[in-house]
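Hello forum,

I keep getting stuck at the same step: I have a sequence, I want structure tokens, and every attempt I make locally crashes halfway through. Rather than fight my setup again tonight, could one of you with a working pipeline run this one for me? It's a single chain of 59 residues.
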Amino acid sequence: MQARRRGMPFLLAGRDGASLDMLADRYGVARMQLDLRQRASSLTQHLDGVSGVLNAAGP
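Reply #2:
Ran it on my machine without issues. Output:
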């Protein structure tokens, strides 16, 4: 239970090495997807800011 609270669900898998690897891969992919979503959100905010500056400057 301690591992799950720390965000490491793959440590709670069975003793089978294959299932540990599979869960670790899924956990890694989920973390990567979250990181990409956060980067996309940050980029969108940056582009919105740039767009606002350009619109304020006028044609």
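The two ends are 59 Å apart (CA to CA). If your local run keeps crashing, start a new thread with the error log.
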